[in-house]
Amino acid sequence: MTHIVAEPCVGCKYTDCVVVCPVECFYEGEQMVYIHPEECIDCEACVPECPVEAIFHEDNLPEEWKSYIELNAQKSEECEVITEKKEPLADD
Length: 92
Fold this sequence. Notes:
Layout: E1 3-5, H1 16-20, E2 26-28, E3 33-35, E4 55-57, H2 67-78, E5 80-81
Antiparallel strand pairs: 1-4, 2-3, 2-5
């Protein structure tokens, strides 16, 4: 199982979560970050760091955001890995 970045991250893109990830499984898109499902070790270190509560365990993902499972898998293959905190979009 893995964790999923969902809808609340869109347009915010806080990166507090990426600096606590021990396996560097976060990838940066234009409007949000994504978790690579095969790299995530399910440690949950990122969950409390997200100020908009956008990270969910796959089993606890709200039904309306189930499409984010595939979106995270797809985009994490296309985007660049992110390991350092950056200015969020929400503060622009």
